[in-house]
């Protein structure tokens, strides 16, 4: 992996920018209690915005709230060099399809097996063994179509970084489990796809506050996406247990997981993925 770039110089204070200049920076960081924020809008009917003191001025984002009829009118952000570099790198990762003929993709799949079952020898890239991990069939490459190679990278990152949590979810060790459980590996691919949609990183211009907040986190840690993935997985499993869910409830659980992630990312004191309350679920 490429080394992280040096931090960029601090941006000019927000007071030196013209909030009416539509090509300038109007990125937002607000407090949930004061602004009553949902995923991308304000609750209430007042036209005045009251967002408290900005916490991220001088750290890559300035705080400007523009509100009309209970909803934010405009979001736009000028990226720092570090943010731009890491965002482009992440976008590139998101565009790579899993190619079973590529040697590096084959090796990544084998690495996932070793990290998951260190004491079991893999019989082949096409094998009945893969079903034990929660793939739909003998060939896991057919399950990557929705999210691409990055979903394999996410699973591998989870397995190596938080091995105890990974194994706990894989083996369904906690709580009263449903008779018809979610397939672990396929659930992981769906979680990657859900996060990509939630962050809206492929759009040309930022359209959500969650995206703007995440890009700031990306400038702090280039592995922010992978860390968010791990948090999302444990949140999904907790939601699954809390709802006494079964296989047919998976999409509903995934929706509630996204809502929980958005809510936590919008909290005023969450500056890094590690600050999210649900990060404590990882071990």
Automatic annotation (TrEMBL):
Transmembrane segments: none annotated. Residues 1-12 have a biased composition (Pro residues). Residues 104-265 form the ELMO domain. Residues 1-21 are annotated as: Disordered. It holds the Pfam family ELMO_CED12. InterPro entries: ELMO_dom, ELMO_domain-containing. Coiled coil: none annotated. This is ELMO domain-containing protein. It comes from Urochloa decumbens.
